[in-house]
Design brief:
Elements (H helix, E strand, L loop, with lengths): L2 H7 E4 L3 H7 L3 E6 L5 H12 L3 E9 L3 E4 L2 E4 L3 E8 L12
Antiparallel strand pairs: 1-2, 2-6, 3-6, 4-5
Length: about 100
């Protein structure tokens, strides 16, 4: 895979209270593409961030149905990946914030 494909797999980091609590136990949460597999996610994390991945857990979230002034809509479905890193490894998700 090329670098471009790795960036297509990882959409964005998830920065919430729960994900910041998981970072204390050496875990990082990313929003990933729906078609990506656990092996693809592991390869892209290891090559982009130069860290060792212990395990990858994924979950699919169904989009909610919404109503706004009698207009029915639906939010997009998305997939999260919870990446457990080896001991001593870390990823700075906050960047320079």
């Amino acid at each position: 895979m090329s670098e471009k494909n790795f960036f297509d797999i990882l959409v964005s980091p998830v920065v919430t209270e729960k994900s910041s609590m998981l970072s204390e136990s050496n875990k990082v949460v990313f929003k990933v593409s729906m078609q990506s597999s656990k092996q693809d996610i592991k390869k892209s994390i290891e090559s982009l961030f130069k860290v060792k991945v212990k395990s990858v857990n994924t979950l699919r979230r169904k989009g909610k149905s919404t109503n706004f002034k009698n207009i029915k809509g639906k939010r997009k479905d998305f997939k999260h990946a919870i990446i457990t890193l080896e001991d001593g490894q870390s990823i700075d998700v906050m960047g320079g914030v």
